[in-house]
Amino acid sequence: MASIPQLEFTNKDAIPDIVNGVRSTFHTQKTKPLEFRLVQLRKLYWGMIDNQKAIAAACKQDLGKGHFEANLMELDFCTQTIIYCCNNLEKWAKDETAKDIPFANKLLFPKIRKEPLGCVLIIGPYNFPVNLLIAPLAGAIAAGCTVVLKPSENAPNVAVVLQKVIEGYLDPSCYRVIQGAIPETTALLEQKWDKIFYTGGATVGTIIAKKAAETLTPVTLELGGRNPAIITKNADIRLAARRLLWGKIVNAGQVCVSQNYTLVDKEVLDRFVAEMKTAMKEYYPNGTRNTDDFGRIINDRQWQRLKKMVDESKGKLLMGGEMDESDRYIEPTIIQVDSQTDSLLVDESFGPLMPILPVNNLDEAIRIANEVHETPLGLYPFGNKKETDRCLREIRSGGASVNDGFMHGSLPTMPFGGVGDSGQGAYRGQASFDCFTHRRSITSTPSWLEGMMSVRYPPYTGKLEKMRSMGNLKPNFDRDGNVKFSLVSYVLSLGAGSKTGGLIRYVLVLLAALGLRQYLG
Ligand code: NAD
């Protein structure tokens, strides 16, 4: 593999001035006009396109990432995200009329304005070093924030190219890159931010959340997970094998949402392993060693960590197992383990290791999944509909792909995020804009409304009932928690949600009003 260049770290002493500069720009209102944001997004798009060869080459150098993966999962993911932001920005940024406002308060013209959060910090990881830095950046630009980015020092070639793209194509007074490792990131965390967006492991996520708490800075944390796949005896075993193998060969298993372990019903274990081996031969007829279609582990430290996990496992090797430190190569490897406390299950492997734990039934699989990690990032149930529904109901997770590997995590427009200790907050699609946006509630009280408003001023005598009559909601339930039957609410709920229902309700209300008018003469 190509040697790793010495990434030039930003001088720590320069960091406060750089951050202050970007923060001051935010206060000049420069990033507020939509046209400014759109121009920056368009320039970012062209920066990515103009540098696509350099980006793919850097991915190859850092992670052994091949042409297909680098283009599809790094470059195209970002360019698609940018175009999607451009196409939708006007719609997302428009003021929203506030919903469910009592009639009397509608005269205050209540609305929700989408304000940029301010000056934000985005810290990226090494595994998808382009995608996981640029996709949040697109959201932050769209939202009107100014941004400081800290690429992962563990993917140094990509870090260099991205700095060139960001600082060469975007307005440098608004968007800056800081290069560095722990000392530089620590210096960044000393600065005041309006939001910190972090992708990476939970240990560092905890450091970031603690630091942010000191200044009540909001965070989005995109963390890792010990994600379970579950295969029942009613699953399509061939499909399960093909799809889960895909989930582990992408990026040599260095994917936060790939399955960390698979719980397989004992009855179908042999078939599943046989199908995995067949799929492996089909995907890689000449093996994974000398192909552009299979990557490498990011660095020696991570390679050693993975080797240790395998060495400490008490499991039985069923497929693969070849490892070469000089090349940071690890062959896709299946190991049958006999306990949920095996080294391959207790930690996130983040590599092409596929431990399989045989189980007696779905009850046992669900119990183990919940014991290994209560809130993983992803969940991959394979079985009939009843079984996969049950898995979704009884196992929590950030997201899930039913009858597949991490498909839900590969859609650039679908909100993506963890739950519990696999993360907080979400982005992608409109969620990327929302993630960096403050929804500011605004009312405007007309001066001519003062007569009506006087009901809120002291002296309060006799005013409480008047206020209550102006729109207080009435309960439709009794003391036992049961819903009370009322003809009016029954009629109003007819066909709720459908256009025809709305029309029926409208006609009924009209008839009632006409009847009332006749009755009143
Ligand atoms: P990493 O080593 O690239 O570190 C991530 C970032 O944290 C880097 O920018 C690094 O400089 C910074 N950092 C490291 N130590 C720090 C410290 N002590 N203080 C402040 N900053 C520090 O990546 P990683 O964390 O090893 O990445 C792997 C993990 O990331 C896995 O757990 C994986 O599941 C998770 N991940 C999650 C997602 C997601 O979207 N949820 C995506 C990718 C990776």
TrEMBL record:
Active site (record annotation): E222, C256
Secreted recorded as keyword: no
GO terms under cellular component: cytoplasm
InterPro entries in the record: Ald_DH/histidinol_DH, Ald_DH_C, Ald_DH_N, Aldehyde_DH_dom, Aldehyde_DH_NAD(P)
One Gene Ontology molecular-function label: aldehyde dehydrogenase (NAD+) activity
Gene Ontology terms: biological process: aldehyde metabolic process; carotenoid biosynthetic process
UniProt keyword terms in alphabetical order: Carotenoid biosynthesis, NAD, Oxidoreductase
Boundaries of every Aldehyde dehydrogenase domain copy: 10-441
UniProt similarity note: Belongs to the aldehyde dehydrogenase family.
Entry protein name: Aldehyde dehydrogenase
